[in-house]
Protein: Resolvase/invertase-type recombinase catalytic domain-containing protein
Organism: Brevifollis gellanilyticus
Amino acid sequence: MQAGETRAGLARQREVIRLAVGAKGLHCLEVVELHVSGTVAASHPDMLRIYSMISSGMIKGVVVADLDRLFRPDEPQSFAALQIFRDMGAKIYAGDTEYDLTTANGLLYSSIRSAIAGFELSLIKERMQGAKEAKRRAGKCPSSAVTMPLGIGYDRKEEKWHYTPDISSVKLLFERFDAGGVRNYSQLGREVGLCSASVKCILRNPIYTGWRVIDKKRGAKRKSVSGKLYRVKVARAESEVIRLKVLDGIISEECFQRVQAEMAITKFNFINEFRSNDTVNIGTGIAFCGCCGRPLYCVSGKCNEVRKKAGYYQCKAQHYSYKAQLGGCKQRNLNRDDLDEAIIKLASTILRSEEHLTSLLAESFQRSSEVVTPFAQVAPPSAQLDELSKRDKRLLEAYEAGAISVDELRQKREAIRQKRAAVEQATRSSSSKDKDELKAMARLVIKGARRFKALDDKGQKKKIIHELFSEIHVRHNQLVSFRFRPVALTAASPESAASTTILLPKPIQVGKEQATLPPGQRRCITCDEVKAQQEFYRNLNRCNPCRSKQERMRHEKRRAKAKSKQASPNQSTESQ
């Protein structure tokens, strides 16, 4: 709502940025608008792309209206965003203020302003949560109408609770569960037009007896198995629990207790199966799409003939919750086992030896430094040496043409020789320093993952991989690059090593490498044979023989199930 047309927040920020760009004489490469809160701006995909552009040297600064628009540090690790600007010498222009983090004053002022922004955020949250808690204890509702249970409303003018017409659906659910004996949540949901999860929450809510009970609150941030961030609900202490009578109950206390007792003894197979599932998804949280830069979510697939779920990784832009908002992505879904195996192969390959990792890092940094940008102020050493050679050649040509004397020639050639020697010396010292830093970093990484090859447990391998890598980029069906986690490189402290994307000289294949098929032929996903297009029905991925075999198996299962149902009444009659 703060970005709405009736608000002036975005218009003010645009004007401040426009004036700052004009006053500083900056060359604006791109304008990025994020309609998100400042607390999550630092982790937004567009901001991660900007950090990548800074790390590669493509841009030399960022202009924002205020420093808290760039990020609001709510945790100590949030200050790591400033390290990228310091390592690359990039500046932050916040209105009329210019922060150069390579200087002591710039680092001090930016850290203080960022800490103040984080303190203001925590203060706002503290006041807001305190006011909400006071309203809850007074029997009032501090939240919006979206959070109301089904059939419950709240009049904000009179500050009173009331029932809405949807309360009839709630009455029907309790009657069908208690008196009707229906224990299937999906069936109850179909009768009133709700999902099974909503039915379960409604039957457990004591507000329909007139009592509002608040015994849970949001806890710390967690990452789900699919890679999503959320705040888990935790139980309140007994002194924090709120119990207030706010309505005349439409469900009696006896009926509500009977329903709770019956729900407590009802067991569900899918819950037991979920708790006993020991599946390890290695790519969760570190696998990112190489096409759009968004994270890959782990999604469970359907069961096959042996009742084993074939999970797969899906780009966030392709997920059903975000596809309409983000517009989809070209990245195809990847088999979970294939991607996990490729990540393990990547770790085993780069952790082979210190020499191999050092050469890989050096080659990647060299390719990154060769990126040509419009902001480069100093030419690379090779370009400087070429320019000095051209100047020396022009001096010789000028002497032969009689334009300069011998003394001038000797004087100017001596100056060129000295400059050439200085450039070569700087190149050798820089190369030696970089090589030492790369060796130190490689030694540290190898030391931390020395036990990786000897492990058989997939969960322990995942722990080591997540300690070493912060991102692994997957483009189509290949691992193309990765980033180390900054914590793993703290002792080595190479310049911008933690924020640099390490490019693999040879991408690692995810799954089997599919050869290019000739026109008019396709590959069956069941028998893995290449057949003519006529052997497939329309756009199905299974050939006709495999599809017929699958249909026969399904038909036999249906017949066996029907026979077992017919035999059940006969067996019960004989036992009687």
Remarks:
- Residues 406-448 form the longest helix (43 residues).
- The first strand starts at residue 61 and ends at 64.
